[in-house]
Design brief:
Elements (H helix, E strand, L loop, with lengths): L6 H13 L3 H13 L1 H23 L2 H7 L1 H23 L3 H11 L3 H20 L2 H10 L11 H35 L2 H23 L3
Helix pairs in contact: 1-9, 2-3, 2-9, 2-10, 3-7, 3-8, 3-9, 4-8, 5-7, 5-10
């Protein structure tokens, strides 16, 4: 359909890619550990929505243009690195009183919790969209499963992207559930919560620095 080839291999490859730890998984685990299941889930949905953007860009050729431009790659790389470092520093050095207030807000009613949940979604979204390695992945991986003779390449890319995102949502939800379940009791203790925030914040800074040095 739409010129898609070797679809079973595509599904198998996506599964293996999802279960292999990477920056997105580390980010989701970090949010789940530091701020709970709701924060992890919103971050995961934000990241998966970012994959939707990459899918559309790949389908219409924009990803290939970005991958071919050293300047565009560098700009996106440093924007993503700075954003991750900013999130890490903010999390690591947030006063404990403010952190507890944010947790209390997330446990409040939907109207009060909407704003922080929206922020978590957007943060996950931008960490994915501003990662140039994801751009390179889409432009190099997806074309292998679309026939060069297909007259519906755009629809093929969109269909493959839909499968990729759906599988990613399922896997990310599982990761969130595991990470938040393991750390739920620890996160309820103020002293431990403070150090969890610092460790996770430091991990975000490390991810940002690693991204900045990507060639």
């Amino acid at each position: 359909m739409f010129g898609i080839v070797h679809f079973p291999f595509f599904v198998a490859a996506v599964f293996l890619l999802n279960v292999t730890p990477g920056p997105d998984t580390a980010y989701i685990v970090g949010r789940s550990v530091a701020q709970g299941r709701g924060a992890g889930m919103m971050s995961a949905l934000g990241i998966c929505t970012g994959c939707c953007v990459h899918t559309i860009a790949c389908a219409f050729g924009l990803t290939a243009l970005l991958a071919a431009s050293a300047t565009a790659f560098t700009v996106i790389k440093f924007a993503g690195a700075i954003y991750l470092i900013y999130l890490g520093v903010r999390l690591a050095f947030t006063p404990q009183a403010k952190s507890q207030a944010a947790t209390a807000t997330s446990n409040a009613g939907p109207a009060q919790a909407a704003k922080p949940l929206k922020q978590l979604f957007l943060q996950g979204f931008w960490t994915n969209v501003l990662n140039p390695k994801v751009v390179l992945f889409f432009v190099s991986f997806f074309p292998q499963f679309v026939s060069g003779e297909s007259g519906h390449k755009t629809l093929a890319f969109l269909a493959l992207g839909g499968v990729f995102v759906a599988m990613s949502v399922v896997w990310c939800s599982f990761v969130v559930w595991i990470a938040s379940s393991v750390t739920r009791r620890l996160g309820g203790k103020p002293g431990v919560k403070k150090w969890l925030d610092r460790v996770v914040g430091s991990a975000f800074v490390g991810l940002g620095l690693k991204l900045a040095t990507t060639r």
